[in-house]
Q: What sequence folds into this?
């Protein structure tokens, strides 16, 4: 039989860990403090590690999207067009350019936006042989073509 790990903490240490769990500015410190407190309560380290401490967060989409598919579709629609159509002075998309154009990405850091795009299955591809985006004149006429395209 595997021996369980015994962790004995003083009341001062418990107070510091509870404060860190509830109020620390860094999420990883809050998570680690919660893990130590659970082990001190008697849970095994394995239980704490397997069951997790925090609930997985859903991606931060705008309220108009009901799921990842809609958010990915909006991003694909933006990416398939030239950044110049959105007033940006580059010929290819870059991460900060996407954050400038898509409103619900503005609140994310570069790393957060990168992780969100990876979760949505949107990847950067180099060396394209063809261009998805229509010309600027075609983009101006696009609303008139939408009823015919299905």
A:
């Amino acid at each position: 039989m595997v021996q369980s790990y015994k962790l004995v903490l003083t009341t001062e240490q418990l107070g510091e860990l509870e404060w860190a769990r509830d109020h620390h500015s860094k999420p990883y410190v809050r998570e680690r403090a919660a893990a130590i407190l659970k082990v001190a309560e008697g849970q095994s380290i394995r239980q704490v590690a397997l069951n997790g401490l925090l609930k997985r967060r859903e991606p931060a989409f705008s309220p108009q999207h009901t799921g990842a598919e809609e958010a990915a579709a909006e991003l694909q629609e933006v990416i398939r067009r030239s950044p110049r159509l959105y007033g940006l002075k580059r010929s290819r998309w870059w991460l900060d350019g996407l954050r400038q154009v898509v409103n619900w990405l503005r609140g994310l850091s570069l790393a957060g936006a990168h992780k969100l795009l990876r979760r949505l299955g949107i990847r950067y591809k180099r060396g394209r042989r063809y261009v998805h985006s229509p010309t600027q004149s075609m983009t101006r006429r696009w609303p008139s073509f939408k009823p015919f395209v299905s």
